[in-house]
Amino acid sequence: MAIKIESLKTFLTVASSGTLTEAAEILQRTPSAISMTLKQLEQELGQNLFVTDRKSALTPMGQYVLDEGKKAVGDFDASMMAIKRFAEGDNGTIKLAAVPSIATRLLPSVVTQFHQTSKNVRIELRDMDSSMVAAAVRNGSVDFGIASLTQESHDLDTKLILEEPFGLICRKDHKLAAAKKPVTWQTLWQENFLSNGICALIKDPSFQRIVTNCTIHIHNTSTLLSFIEKGLGVTLLPRMALPQEGASNLAFVPIADKTAIRSLHLILQKHHLLNPASEELVKSILEWMRLKSQ
Fold first, then answer.
1. Fold of 5-87
2. The pTM of the whole model exceeds 0.85
3. CATH architecture for the domain at 93-161+263-293
4. Alpha helix locations (H) across the chain?
5. CA distance 132 to 97
6. Integer Cα distance of 159 and 243 in angstroms
7. How many CA atoms lie within 13 A of 27 on its CB side?
8. How far apart are CA 49 and CA 64, in angstroms?
9. pLDDT, tens digit (0-9, with 9 covering 90-100), for 218-249
């Protein structure tokens, strides 16, 4: 037995209106077409749904179909609405990963704007370092990521969305915070340098020797900044990795090497299709970055 949802909807309309004529007006069909649909439904069930041809009273079977039909049609309509919202990007779940600076400085503004038109979308955000972001995209645990790439990745689709210079990060009362000239790599040899994961993005041999010789390496940005605030050394980070002005006791000091730049990429699996909601959020991120760069 394969009862069509349209047959159930027709029966429910007739049962609630009480006449074929009124049901035909509601459904914008002819009374004969309505009558034929009801007969086909009764044949499929093997029982009558109405006591008389006047359709004003239901049989026990008709009452049961009415009760169950209301639930079935309600569930069907809800599912169709959910499918429609999903197709329009206003339903579903978005899973993304981003480096902490993007998660804290860029995404709050973008997500706030995105949710104004996509209130039903669930967003699951993970903040992690760049290598973990790329790994999460590769293994499919997130739909897309935003991170730096320390090496070329042939198995990923990437789109450059932002470039920003590195700078020396130190306490505001550190002697280098008042430097009148950009800091050179030679100057850093005299400091207790704390390395971090994105130091690998700077390829200069002089700087990489500093990284190789340092004794403390910290992956987590928040932990790294807390060490700097305690006066345990200095590090190199992009400006966006720093808390907003006035929110910490840290200073950003330009460095002399203008090639020391962090490039942030939107990262996707190759040949992987995003769900509509994820596509819309990606568009929002790209548009936000476009407006920011103007």
1. Arc Repressor Mutant, subunit A (1.10.10)
2. no
3. 3-Layer(aba) Sandwich (3.40)
4. 5-17, 20-27, 31-45, 60-87, 100-105, 107-115, 130-138, 185-188, 205-213, 221-229, 276-293
5. 9
6. 26
7. 26
8. 9
9. 988 889 999 999 999 999 999 888 877 666 78
